[in-house]
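Tokens in:
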């Protein structure tokens, strides 16, 4: 029997609004689960076992670590309020979804936490720290560490004791920090303190790095005059974590899905600005002999090999303001082995296309549907 109720556009509007809400929920919430559930922890490759290090004890569990960089939380100067809201929501959802789905043991954020840290007043800086802890909150059984970036405290020439100490106190991030977990040693370094000019920041950093190197040698049994109470009881080659990439001429050598666009790949890097100096890079390799280096700063992905077996990953900005297709790095570590893999975030341009196509389809569908209902109503009414 035909429906003879009076025709009304109200029902069409309500149905269209519900459909739009569903699209919004998918693009702003569910899409992160659909994309990030495809990521997985890499498997350890038995071919990569370091035979010079004693094999991992059966009772030891591999460490699952997550690395991100360049979050650039906007301040009051450079960001529109909506841009700020959008970017922070994206990072919050991506980060919290990764925590929920993959439960890392430890997380490292490799500098440029804030976009305007060096220019912020004390009040604004403290507010930024609160926002940071809100967005990147972690469960009690997960550890979170950060290193300083040039946007946090300034480039080397602009760093003052006040700016440095404010960051150190606010985020518990000293210029050099060793984090050891289950026999794996992560060495966090302030890249701007590697100028080698004896400044108030550089000289203590150099001393701290040499001290860590001495402890590692003692743990390996390669040094004399070692204290019995050496702070490192078990040796493994360290993982260097910093903001600047190691020295390279440009991103021309990079070949990653999240690499720099072709128009800027060949632009030469300036030492101490886009990368560490060649001298500082060689010194780090000599002193620490790392097995892996992870860094950021360029906002684009890159992978390269140093000295045949030292892998360096430069990871892109975690903010969609700087990268259409952000990614992060997942790593599984034991003292004598490790494996890493990229995890790609939702692509913002794809999300925008979903919005546009969905809205157009909803509009067309409900226009046609309402016209059919209207025709049906008038047919019944006049016949």
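Residues out:
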């Amino acid at each position: 029997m035909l429906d003879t109720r009076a025709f009304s556009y109200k029902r069409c509007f309500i149905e269209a609004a519900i459909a739009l809400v569903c699209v919004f929920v998918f693009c702003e919430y569910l899409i992160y689960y659909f994309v990030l559930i495809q990521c997985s922890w890499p498997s350890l490759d038995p071919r990569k076992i370091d035979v010079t290090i004693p094999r991992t004890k059966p009772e030891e569990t591999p460490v699952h670590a997550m690395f991100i960089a360049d979050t650039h939380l906007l301040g009051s100067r450079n960001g529109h309020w909506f841009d700020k809201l959008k970017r922070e929501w994206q990072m919050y959802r991506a980060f919290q979804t990764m925590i929920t789905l993959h439960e890392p043991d430890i997380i490292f954020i490799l500098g440029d936490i804030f976009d305007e840290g060096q220019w912020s007043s004390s009040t604004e800086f403290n507010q930024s720290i609160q926002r940071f802890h809100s967005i990147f909150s972690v469960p009690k059984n997960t550890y979170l560490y950060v290193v300083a970036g040039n946007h946090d405290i300034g480039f080397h020439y602009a760093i003052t004791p006040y700016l440095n100490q404010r960051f150190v106190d606010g985020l518990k991030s000293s210029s050099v920090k060793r984090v050891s977990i289950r026999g794996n040693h992560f060495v966090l370094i302030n890249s701007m303190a590697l100028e080698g000019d004896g400044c108030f920041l550089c000289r203590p950093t150099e001393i701290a790095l040499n001290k860590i190197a001495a402890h590692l040698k003692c743990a390996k049994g390669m040094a004399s005059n070692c204290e019995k109470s050496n702070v490192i009881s078990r040796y493994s080659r360290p993982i260097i974590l910093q903001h600047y990439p190691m020295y390279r001429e440009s991103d021309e050598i990079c070949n990653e899905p999240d690499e720099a666009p072709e128009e800027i790949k060949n632009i030469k890097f300036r030492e101490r600005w886009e990368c560490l100096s060649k001298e500082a890079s060689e010194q780090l390799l000599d002193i620490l002999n790392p097995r892996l280096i992870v860094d950021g700063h360029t906002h684009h992905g890159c992978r390269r090999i140093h000295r045949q077996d030292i892998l360096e990953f430069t990871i892109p900005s975690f903010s969609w303001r700087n990268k259409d297709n952000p990614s992060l790095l997942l790593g599984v570590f034991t003292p004598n082995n490790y494996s890493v893999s990229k995890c790609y975030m939702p692509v913002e341009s794809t999300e925008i296309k979903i919005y546009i196509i969905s809205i157009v389809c909803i509009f067309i569908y409900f226009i046609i549907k309402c016209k059919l209902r209207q025709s049906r109503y008038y047919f019944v009414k006049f016949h």
